[in-house]
Design brief:
The complex is a heterotrimer of chains A (360), B (374) and C (142). With 360 residues, chain A is α/β, with parallel strands linked by helices. Helices cover 32% and strands 25% of the residues of chain A. Chain A has helices spanning 30-37, 41-45, 61-76, 101-108, 125-138, 214-233, 252-260, 264-268, 273-276, 283-292, 323-327, 333-338, 345-351; strands at residues 14-22, 26-29, 51-54, 83-89, 115-119, 144-152, 167-176, 182-194, 197-198, 207-208, 242-245, 300-304, 306-307, 309-319, 341-342. In chain A, strands 1, 4, 5, 6, 7, 8, 11, 12, 13 and 14 form a ten-stranded mixed β-sheet that branches. In chain A, strands 3-2-15 form a three-stranded mixed β-sheet. A two-stranded antiparallel ribbon of chain A has the order 9-10. In chain A, a hairpin with a 1-residue loop joins β13 and β14 (309-319). Chain B is α/β, with parallel strands linked by helices. Chain B has a domain at 4-114 and 206-216: Thiolase/Chalcone synthase (Peroxisomal Thiolase, Chain A, domain 1), CATH 3.40.47. Chain B has 14 helices and twelve strands. In chain B, α1 packs across α3 and α4 (83-98) crosses α14 (327-339). Chain B is globular, with a radius of gyration of 19 Å. Chain C is mainly beta and 142 residues long. Helix content of chain C is 8%, strand content 39%. In chain C, the strands form two sheets. In chain C, strands 6-5-4-7-8 form a five-stranded antiparallel β-sheet. The radius of gyration of chain C is 16 Å and the shape is globular. Classes of the chains: A alpha/beta (360), B alpha/beta (374), C mainly beta (142). Chains in contact: A-C, B-C. At the B-C interface, α5, α6 and β5 of B face β4, β5 and β6 of C.
């Protein structure tokens, strides 16, 4: 299964030592949201999202990020003080100014000799953190980094976005090739200025270009990144055991896979949005975590996160023997997916602070 | 010559919307001093919740100004919910060491602000970086203790409800009490929940009041002070091997009995911010076996004609009221009046000894004052 | 009255490490652990203490649902509070992720989670720290 042209790339000097997930326990069925706003059934069924994870009133992107990070560090089995950078990717940061990454770094014990920053690139920010981590580790500048993708995705009540905008977090400890549970093989990034989805400063809810979020944004960027990766490495869809794409809903990742020549079998394990909704910065990377929960040594994984605005990274990752001993050290993604309490729209509105105290 | 409670002055505890802390304190002091002639040399003021709700530092000096006590020696004492009896301790020791008269006045005002603000302030009777860290208000720890108590001793909710019923039946006769009406035990469990299993009828009302006592080292007056003692307890119920046993209460009580040279008392005022605290104090004082206090209360053991001492003839914190910094001063005044046979409510029959037991929170501190008739 | 109930910015910063990492203290004299760390052992009074990590799993000894909440707590009320046995220590902590109070019971397993504790207002800093929740799938939630 060795890929031509991949072995000597700098990416191959870095790998994933630990991965960790966190998903809040609360779920609201898409059907309930649709009923609240009077949508017909086909409207929500088309998205292929059964229910979405909702953060509790005392949860936010930082708290979920801490929980996922603790799980990732448990799997990596490293002293947290050896982490030299914490990259926090989120579009629901609790502070407009003041890093969340420092809170996470402090909570997990990575401080004070560490880099820490919040990254912003819509749903792709954490992936940029992953690529930065590969560079920092493969160059030898740092030993380990912590990459966190976490969002309590905002959706204006009544917007179609509300069907899928969910809460969840994922974290990875990136470190040297030796001892890694999976090693990077290659990466390819594709970015343009495409305003398909945005949120202006100070505004609580994002705006989006509806159909414009599809072809010119999601599909064009992911396909360009994945094709670029395959061209550079000579890898073909059939060389991968798993393919994970950004998942704004349950239908786009399947369609982009088909367009690129991947089968549904390759995509299935990495699909989490149909089960818990779109967790934005955690979306594709949570899919990667779910693949690592089951992948066997030697298997190859394609991951392609996407962020509006717009850009995509494609990574090729190969699983090592070390994965077996790491798996059991923290709860798998499915533990969190299955640990759930269904809530109604009233509780959802209360939890997410959407109760508007209107003047009479 | 023992220090005596020369005279006392009380305001009725109520929502005194038209009176501030100085109005109430002056009223109580005027009542205490109206027959006693000589002015006190020392003024010991006690206030607690108002320090956070309607802040005033150096309250004792400003109170002295309102009282016209120019040039007097004034200071304030703060010990959370036990402030009043802590002020009695300080005043008592001052009277002994200086041979001068000491006026102790406790005052607090809880009715001016919304209850959520009062709970925010009162939770600080608990440790700021521990049990008070969360947005839990004042009642949470009492709820935990009540829950532990019911579980451990198999006491049911209905039996515990006899405590507030007894407090209300006593308060009904006390003109200074805030809640002067009867409450049936069966109404308690279904009242508004406060901190499960406790309800609003298990909890002290948020009222305002002031109480003053004049301590005189020359003796005479209503009653003699036999001893005032205290002890600190654990910083949290989490640090107590047995949170249902109040170490600070036990120790302050032991010290006070030993100093006074008595084995027990006939009339008692104890701290019952919530039903559970009253029951736990009764058990810690060994007036009831572990887990049996509620049953004894239901049997009428602690009211007139009961087998035990008369407990909380005032109606207790539950029904007389609990203007935090003033409460211990009320207790001292009420016990002294009982021993002089002038308490204008439910009366102990010819009692010669009495005590007041006050605590802060879960028992981070406890104070005991023992009195005997003159 | 704003902020009277919760920690303010600088003190929250000063006290963050034990709260973020659930670090208590072990008494070198009597060996017992406690949280939050005091300057002396609450059991024997010794000042000879060392930092100690507390276990994140425990059992509920008692709980209460608080309705008489303080300012700023109304939108989250009732607030659940537990006395938790960690084996090596006991703690009083807020309980979170409780959707069905009827499933709370003495003895159920609980776990530490990193959560928001309080904030001065929506312009102030957020105080984070450990709360406990019923372990999902172990009697609470389905």
């Amino acid at each position: 299964m060795a890929a031509e042209g991949a072995g000597s790339r700098p990416e191959s000097r870095a790998g994933i030592h630990g991965w960790g997930a966190y998903i809040p326990v609360y779920r609201i069925p898409t059907r309930v949201i649709a009923a609240e706003w009077g949508w017909p059934d086909h409207q929500w069924k088309a998205l292929n999202v059964a229910e979405k994870a909702v953060a509790g009133p005392d949860e936010d992107s930082t708290t979920m990020g801490v929980e996922a990070s603790l799980n990732a560090i448990r799997r990596a089995r490293i002293e947290p003080s050896r982490i030299g950078a914490v990259f926090f990717g989120s579009e629901s940061k609790v502070y407009a100014v003041k890093p969340s990454a420092t809170i996470i770094a402090e909570a997990v014990g990575a401080t004070p000799v560490t880099m820490a920053s919040d990254l912003e690139f819509a749903c792709r920010a954490a992936s940029e953190g992953m690529k930065n981590s590969i560079a920092l580790v493969s160059s030898g500048m740092l030993e380990y980094t912590l990459v966190v993708g976490s969002d309590t995705a905002q959706a204006s009540p009544g917007d179609v976005l509300e069907f899928s905008a969910a809460s969840g977090a994922v974290a990875f400890v990136v470190g040297p090739r030796d001892g890694a549970a999976a090693v990077f093989e290659a990466s390819y990034t594709y970015v343009t200025d495409t305003p398909d989805f945005w949120r202006r400063a100070g505004k609580p809810y994002p705006s989006h270009g509806e159909g414009f979020t599809g072809e010119p944004a999601y599909f064009h960027h992911i396909m360009s990144a994945v094709k670029g990766l395959m061209e550079e490495t000579g890898l073909k869809p059939g060389d991968f055991d798993y393919a994970v794409f950004h998942q704004p809903n349950g239908k786009f990742p399947v369609r982009v896979a088909q367009k690129l020549g991947f089968t549904i079998e390759q995509v299935k394990q990495g699909l989490v949005t149909p089960l818990i909704g779109n967790t934005y910065n955690a979306s594709a990377l949570l899919g990667l975590a779910r693949v690592l929960d089951v992948a066997r040594p030697g298997e190859r994984i394609l991951v392609a996160p996407f962020g509006s605005g717009a850009g995509s990274d494609a990574y090729s990752i190969v699983v090592t023997d070390a994965i077996e001993e790491r798996r059991g050290l923290a709860p798998p993604v499915d533990y969190y997916i299955n640990s759930k309490v269904v809530i109604d729209y009233g509780l959802y509105v209360k939890f997410r602070g959407k109760v508007v105290k209107r003047r009479i | 010559m023992p220090v005596s409670v020369k005279s006392v002055g009380l305001t009725r505890i109520d929502r005194h919307y038209n009176k501030g802390v100085y109005d109430l304190a002056v009223e109580a002091v005027d009542d205490a001093l109206k027959d006693s002639g000589a002015e006190p040399s020392y003024l010991v003021a006690s206030t607690s919740a108002s320090l956070l709700l309607e802040p005033q530092l150096d309250l004792a000096s400003y109170l002295a100004s309102h009282l016209g006590l120019r040039g007097s020696r004034a200071l304030a004492v703060e010990a959370g919910e036990a402030s009043g009896l802590a002020a009695i301790l300080a005043g008592y020791r001052l009277a002994i060491s200086t041979g001068e008269r000491v006026l102790v006045v406790g005052v607090d005002k809880l009715s001016d602000l919304p209850s959520a603000s009062v709970h925010a302030a009162l939770k600080h009777v608990f440790y700021r970086y521990g049990d008070a860290l969360y947005k839990v208000g004042h009642a949470a720890v009492a709820g935990l203790l009540a829950s532990l108590y019911m579980d451990r001793f198999g006491v049911d909710r209905e039996t515990m409800s006899y405590w507030p019923a007894m407090m209300h039946s006593h308060a009904k006769e006390n003109p200074y009490a805030m809640l002067r009406f009867a409450v049936k035990p069966e109404k308690v469990a279904t009242a508004m929940p406060v901190a499960s299993p406790l309800t609003l009828l298990d909890m002290f009302p948020l009222g305002d009041g002031a109480a003053a006592v004049l301590l005189d080292p020359q003796g005479g007056g209503l009653a003699e002070i036999a001893s005032v003692e205290s002890s600190t307890g654990p910083a949290s119920i989490a640090f107590s091997e047995d949170p249902l046993w109040l170490d600070a209460v036990e120790e302050s009580w032991r010290r006070a009995l030993s100093t006074a040279g008595v084995n027990g008392v006939e009339v008692l005022e104890i701290h019952d911010s919530y039903t559970i605290m009253g029951l736990l104090i009764l058990e810690t004082l060994r007036l009831a076996e572990r887990g049996k206090a509620a049953e004894l209360v239901a049997e009428g053991a602690f009211t007139v004609g009961g087998s035990g001492p008369l407990v909380n003839a005032s109606g207790g914190l539950k029904a007389r009221g609990h203007p935090v910094g003033a409460t211990g001063v009320y207790m001292a005044a009420e016990v002294a009046m009982q021993l002089a046979d002038v308490f204008p409510g439910v009366k102990a029959d010819d009692a010669k000894t009495g005590a007041a037991v006050s605590i802060n929170g879960h028992g981070s501190s406890a104070y005991t004052a023992i009195f005997r008739s003159t | 009255m704003s902020g009277v109930g919760g920690l303010r910015n600088v003190e929250a910063w000063r006290t963050r490490i034990p709260r973020y990492r659930f670090l208590g203290a072990r008494c070198k004299s009597c060996g017992k652990l406690h949280y939050p760390p005091l300057k002396a052992c609450p059991y024997c009074g010794s000042r000879d203490l060392e930092e100690a990590q507390l276990p994140r799993q425990g059992r509920l000894l008692a709980f209460t649902s608080v309705y008489s909440v303080e300012e700023g707590g109304r939108e989250e009320s009732p607030i659940f509070v537990g006395l938790i046995d960690l084996g090596v220590a006991r703690v009083v902590a807020e309980l979170t992720d409780v959707t069905d109070p009827s499933r709370l019971a003495a003895g159920i397993p609980v776990e530490a989670v990193f959560r928001r504790i309080s904030e001065e207002d929506d312009e102030g800093v957020i105080v984070y720290g450990v709360k406990f929740r019923p372990v999902p799938g172990a009697g609470e939630g389905d």
